[in-house]
Amino acid sequence: MSAEPSVAYMQHEPRDHYTLEVLLAQHAATTPDKVCYYIDDVALTFGELHSSADTAAGALLGLGVQPGDSVALFADSCPQWLTIWLALPRIGALSVPVNTMFKGEFLAHQLRDAAASVAVVSARLLDRILELLDELPKLHTVLVLGEVADAAAPATSRVRVLSAEVLSSSDGCAITGRAVPLAWNEPASLIYTSGTTGPSKGVMVSQHYLISGAQVVVDAGNWSEPDVLFGAVPLFHGSGLLGLVLPALITGCTSVIDKQFSVSACWDRVRKYGATGMMAVGPMIMMLWSLPESDDDSRLPLQVVLAAPIPAEVHHAIEKRYGVRLTTIYGLTEAQPITVMPVTGPAVPGSAGKASPYFEVRVVDDNDEDVATGVVGEIVCRPTRPHVMFEGYRGREADTLNQMRNLWFHTGDLGRLDAQGYLFFVDRKKDAIRRRGENISSVELERSVTAHPAVQECAALPVPSELGEDDVKIAVILGDAQLTHEELMDHCVAVIPYFALPRYIEFVDRLPRNATGRVQKFLLREQGITPSTWDREAAGYVIQR
Questions:
Q1: Domain at 66, CATH number
Q2: pLDDT in the model for residue 353
Q3: Do residues 229 and 357 share a domain?
Q4: Counting CB atoms within 10 angstroms of each CB, which of 73, 87, 88, 483 has the fewest?
Q5: In the record, what terms sit under GO molecular function (predicted)?
């Protein structure tokens, strides 16, 4: 079955040929003193951001950043992160947002695949970069945000480690006449998506992808200049960019961005800033719903909350309790938002809304034939306009073509469409794992676990979490060496990002395989949690974050 786009809620067309620089310059000229962002309570105005981005662009040119270079942003959310992200398209360079929980092979693969020549790094994360320098031949400069001891710099002439303060002064290095800015339809950023049959892939997206996707979010929330948006979403996350950063550039509103989500403090933060809109990712809404009821629940300033689809049975109950309108969206790194529940139209609890104006959506069988209404199949989509979805996977043309087979992008997700064209997400067809709003590459997770000398083989898989989404289980075959669950968990903590750490470990004698030797993870998923599965939470294993 296919779904026709619904355009009733669209207030205006996206800025077809606009760039991030044009959007920011407009607000800097008309409302320079208005605060566009509060990042962990640090205020940043449109005028300050425009000026600092211009200065940073000149400084990056002076450091040798060339058109087509990739610059990794491996840093905590802060005003400097935004400044550099906005500066890079001005000089023809690509931004590479990197998850700050990454370490080891997770981090090395992304920086290596992106061919990053410069890395902007928070001081607390510097050691993770320095220990990988031998694996990053393209990297020539590391810019450190925050104070770092001189002794931390490596004794090498190939890579220079500098304070990011150098970006605050271009020493007269004006970009006019020297920079080659990216066009609206050229790849501007590499956003990595979790691997399924291989390592994570770099998704090339243009400024038009970013702006048009954010425009759909803005119109879905019915947001405008007077609104204040709130979200505890890191800037490296696509939801943070499309749901908080870009709406401020499009509408001139203010976005409040917290580094970390706190269930107990969330509503206090919303009240402090008088937030009228909120971007919630992963299980945030369900975690807030689990809080004890309070007389203040219905007195929130919030009007609209954007979130992933939630269970139908609690949708209206959440709206009534908090006095908000829940509008749901569905998308992927390669194409988002694909569907959206318009805030001005009827809500269908449990669904992800209808196709956005920029996508056609179908649900198909294994032969790419439409399934009947209400029947589960794979969700596929294609754009109705150019450059509103990804430009391809970096260096992986075959993967790009395979994902776009028969001229439709195959999401790897299962869903169904009702008679009115509303999409209902059912499950993931692929082996990727999603936990706490983060996609986890099972391939990279398995490689990290098997790096332990006592581990012969590992299969990582999702198991249902009581908070929604997934918890992580690993089925492990040991070699001749002896190993306890706690010892293996110690190894995992050292080499795996916190969000990707397994909760469950099961030592097994063998893994189920098909005729070609491929591990049949669906059988492991069917087994779920067995009596022999070790649960780190039940065992009282404590992780220091």
A1: 3.40.50.980
A2: 94
A3: yes
A4: 483
A5: medium-chain fatty acid-CoA ligase activity
Judge if 250 and 390 occupy the same domain: yes
Distance CA(502)–CA(462), nearest Å, equals 9
Count of CB atoms within 10 A of residue 146's CB?
17
| 8 A C-beta contact, residue 355 and residue 415 | no
Low-confidence ranges of the chain (pLDDT < 50): 5-12, 14-16, 151, 172, 196, 515-516
Same domain as 344, residue 232: yes
Q: Is 6 exposed, middle or buried (0-12, 13-18, 19+ CB in 10 A)?
A: buried
Report residue 265 as tokens. 């403090």
CB–CB of 256/229 below 8 Å? yes
366 and 444 in a single domain? The answer is no
Contact assessment for residue 117 and residue 69, using Cβ atoms and an 8 Å cutoff: yes
Strand boundaries in 207-262, DSSP class E = 228-231, 254-257
Helix (H, G, I), strand (E, B) or coil at 233: coil
- pLDDT at position 371: 94
What is the C-alpha to C-alpha distance for residues 360 and 370, in angstroms, rounded to an integer?
A: 13
| Gap between the Cα atoms of 255 and 47, Å rounded | 15
Number of separate domains in the chain: 3
Both 66 and 142 in one domain: the answer is yes
Q: Quick one: pLDDT at residue 3?
A: 61
Domain that holds residue 447: 434-535
Q: What is the pTM of this model?
A: 0.82
**CA distances in angstroms from 370 to 243, 359, 366, listed in the order given:** 32, 16, 10
Indicate whether 411 and 442 sit together in one domain.
no
* pLDDT for the residue 521: 83
CATH code assigned at 496 = 3.30.300.30
**226 and 371 belong to one structural domain:** yes
| Structure confidence by residue, pLDDT tens digits, 435-478 | 877 778 787 788 889 889 899 889 999 998 887 778 999 999 99
Q: 218 and 293 share a domain?
A: yes
Which residue stretches of 88-137 are H helix? Answer: 104-114, 126-130
